[in-house]
Design goal:
Layout lengths: L36 E3 L2 E3 L7 E8 L4 E8 L6 E5 L6 H10 L3 E6 L11 H7 L4 E5 L8 E3 L4 E4 L2 E7 L8 E5 L10 E5 L2 E2 L2 E2 L9 H12 L7 E4 L9 E2 H7 L7 H8 L10 H8 L13
Parallel strand pairs: 5-6, 6-7, 7-8, 12-15
Antiparallel strand pairs: 1-2, 2-3, 3-4, 4-5, 9-10, 10-11, 11-12, 13-14, 15-16
Helix pairs in contact: 3-5
The protein binds the ligand N[C@@H](CCC(=O)N[C@@H](CSS)C(=O)NCC(=O)O)C(=O)O and fe (ii) ion.
Length: 294
Amino acid sequence: MVMTHFSRLRQLLLLQPKFLSSQPRPLRSPPPTFLRSVMGSSSSFSSSSSKLLFRQLFENESSTFTYLLADVSHPDKPALLIDPVDKTVDRDLKLIDELGLKLIYAMNTHVHADHVTGTGLLKTKLPGVKSVISKASGSKADLFLEPGDKVSIGDIYLEVRATPGHTAGCVTYVTGEGADQPQPRMAFTGDAVLIRGCGRTDFQEGSSDQLYESVHSQIFTLPKDTLIYPAHDYKGFEVITVGEEMQHNPRLTKDKETFKTIMSNLNLSYPKMIDVAVPANMVCGLQDVPSQAN
Ligand SMILES: N[C@@H](CCC(=O)N[C@@H](CSS)C(=O)NCC(=O)O)C(=O)O
Ligand SMILES: [Fe+2]
């Protein structure tokens, strides 16, 4: 499904009329607080916005972060997942059930090369969930995003920024601007920016020139206190700020030519699962079930 633009203020929420409401918000009990805790592969923390529920989850084999966001002040508690992994779908669904959330969107930042996305599996287990990816990815999904699009759950939204370079279709999702939105802002950078690193650029139409431009124009221009949540971590980090990464990223702080030299000398071996993962992820992770691969 290709969506049209309306002043780039379009929100995917419009496709979910039940979440459109002009009614005043019902009075509710004191807002829940979500204190930071690091327990196994899951963590959460408080936001100045009482309506955001946030969880950072980890998949050990591919070192992938999955993010759960929900608007818990909305009666339906609408939720979305960013970069779910097939192997941890049951964990994610159990958590969603325990928290009483309604999963609306299963989103990817890009076509992953190292693991199979959980979006297709989520759709089979929770019919009604919409898979979401950038139009530029060329992958199958229910909803295709373009730069400037907004994905809403309740009153919270994610803005889509094109950050190609690791792959041609990479996007970064940034929480909305404004008093009503989570502060500080949060940027889900996929593999564009990793903490003290960045995504490799040697396959999937990767380009170090493009990645450098993407990061410097779309991510390092965000407020310095913006929290960066990457798709992977190989070094024991969980979250960092834009300001800190602008100062300490060993690759992206360099000038572009030095960056390109660094990137062409990484000498990384290909991800073990690349030959399985990329074809699977081009069809939402369900290459063997074509009728459900959207
Ligand atoms: N060893 C892992 C793959 C590690 C890898 O290549 N990671 C990617 C992100 S997943 S496409 C990457 O961009 N790494 C950058 C870096 O500097 O490490 C496996 O076999 O799966
Ligand atoms: Fe990747």
